[in-house]
Amino acid sequence: MLKNQEAFPAYAIAASLCEAVQTNNVIVSAPPGAGKSTVLPLALLQQKLPGRILLMQPRRVVVRSLAHYLASLLNEPVGKTIGYRVRGESQVSHETKLEIITEGILSRRIQSDPELSGISVVIFDEFHERSIHTDFGLALALEVQQGLRDDLRLVIMSATLDVQRIQTLLPDAINLQSEGKMYPVEEHYLGQVKAESVNSTMAATIEHACGEVDGDVLAFLAGIGAIRKVRQLLEAKINSSDIVIHELYGALEKSAQLAALQPDPSGKQKVILATNIAETSLTIANIEAVVDSGLENVASYQLEGGFKQLNQQMISQASATQRKGRAGRLRPGKCYRLWAKEQHDRLAKQAQAQILQEDIAPLLLESLAWGSPLNDLALLDLPSSAQQSAAFDTLVRIGALRDQQLTPYGRQLATFPCHPVIAHMLLKSSKLGDTQMAAAALVAALYEENMAHTQSVLVTDILRQLDTFSNKRVTRQANRYLSLISERSLPTPGSLTDEEFATAIALAFPRHLAFKSAQGTFKLANGKGATMPPGVIETAEWIAILHAQSLGNELIIRQYQPIAQAQLSALYPDSFIREKRVHYDSASKQMQARQVARFDKIVLDSRPLSEVPKAQFAEAWMAHLQTLPLQQLPFDEKAWQWWYRLQIAEKLMLPQPQSYDGRCAWPVLTQPFTDLPAEFWRDKLASCKKWEQVEKLPWKTLLNQALEWPQQHALDTYLPESLTIPSKRNVTIEYDANGSAIVAVKMQEMYGETKRVHVAGGKLCITFSLLSPAGRPLQTTQDLGSFWQGSYREIQKEMKGRYPKHFWPDDPANAEPTTRTKKFMN
Fold first, then answer.
1. Among 544, 571, 598, which residue terminates a domain?
2. Boundaries of each Helicase ATP-binding domain copy (predicted)?
3. Domain that holds residue 159
4. Predicted TM-score (pTM) above 0.90
5. What are phi and psi of 668, to 5 degrees?
6. pLDDT of 281 strictly over 70
7. Residue 122: is its pLDDT beyond 60?
8. What angle is formed at CA 621 by the lines to CA 616 and CA 626, rounded to 5 degrees?
């Protein structure tokens, strides 16, 4: 073990870890400051394992920083014993024994080398962040271990682990727990801050913290926009000769990141304005105070629109603990939180797993390329059925799937290190010439970059106005993509035409093509509406959208390129359609028939039609009725009573005596217009043009006809619509959604009845709502015999005084039922 490693608490479990990985997987819990990311990988390195150690980290800046730090401990350059690999960048050699990688690297390595040849241990660090790549990488590594490499060892490490859940995936793993190394940190809760005051409160609190501590101050903000605004406020407040301000976020240039992490060379106090990138793993020198806004920007994929929605939300308790821990690494520190203590206790314990919020089309493609359906993988959280359905639709649309099987084209797409639609764009562009390929490569690189802080919205403007650092990143990544489809080098963006950039976007995102409406907004091919950012005016009729942002119910276009309709006609000739359409107009509450010209869901022209086949009206009504929630169906009370009776029949599994060839299963209905055959009401609907006509249809009869005859007979036999009561009168039985059968009847009509009354072959007891002579409820009971002997006495006293002309016998159980007053009873 190297010098000074003994000072870290994680050193206490280093020997146990080295012993455990000889035979088992390991789960390591270590609080902030324990040194797990440095001590434990180095301890494993000393074991002279036969193969390389892979150490996964969630962020590129962490990978680079950790690699340089560990290499410095060995007095070696990066790339020798300690190396690293991130997308498009690596420093490794044949001597490398510990390779630090970003999470997405692992799954691609496994796809290309299913045995993980030459790898002895895979370490999943900061597992609590639950990135989609971590979850998928672990699932694949488990399959490799179980099917091909029983000598491969997996180590899962984090400061805030739900060990019990992880143990379900690794049941034989050895659990190791390290103590933390953290000095006391004073917590200062500033109370809940209004959204419009967060930046000014952060600036004032940072200024205060600078005066309270001698060390540096680390401030956590939601995103780049907040960092820029707080920086402006601070620069107006503080003396730059004493304090230097740094920014820290993922898209920042490497040299600027390094400056933020290291002590100031002139000894000035530093203020570091950071996103949640600074929560874990990064070694940031000399932090003595943390100012935490408690906010983070979380991007979630909107299944309907196909864009990401950026939500600002409160962090989890686990993140708050990580952030606070930064102030107590070297000495006692202070943590200022812009929320109330009682609010802290209500924060979520852990952040939601990324796999539940993301577009999972890439994950689905990779899992199918691997050979295991997504639902068969060892995932802590499975994506929802809606996520999976949207992903399947995407892959089918681009030709990667057919009949839920991966096509040869899909397998080719899976070899590209990008989203499947971007790979599809690159391959399609490769058939359209060199300059189109170059434009596609640049669009692919721009799509993956975080350009939220740019002022431009036109893709061509963004590419031509990139700062030096961003231009270098985009150009480097575009060259990598271009190398996958061409041997030519990348020309300058200025040498490419606007039309070529528009074509590239259209190839990747045909459902994000948009047409300008009369109101100045845009209608997307997927049916959604979108608007330009404030101050941006676009005169083009058609645009191809690369990025848009969902803000509440509004979709804001962030990056786009105008495109000519002639280009779209050449790319998607079959998407321009003329058809006769019948649809329900909710304003007029009637069907409208029109001749429509459209591109996907964009209506370009619509004219009334005078003659339309009735069958189209029926189909349109069916389509509308199938979208309605249950409570909005056009049913009268008779139809609802039929519905409730059918629900009870299915629940009680009532017999069907007329079913001579074997009992038919009772249908389980959630929506009758999707669950029952439509032929019984299709002709009736064909004659309807207005909603009121649909409401007047004999729905009870039509629905009943959709059942098999034995089921109709069983409903009438076991769940009758009426009941003969002791007064010899037939009264209606009211069935309800709770599965009850209720008869409302005047009390005098039930005299003489003492037994419980049942329907459904004795399985359902009728509830009697006994009424006064004026029809008001007096008592509800299923047991008349007990009622007559019990609470009837109190009701009798009151009713005799209020209704003296009516019969209130002392022995109702043996009295004659009546519908008349005492004067007419004899």
1. 571
2. 17-179
3. 5-177
4. no
5. -100, 110
6. no
7. yes
8. 130
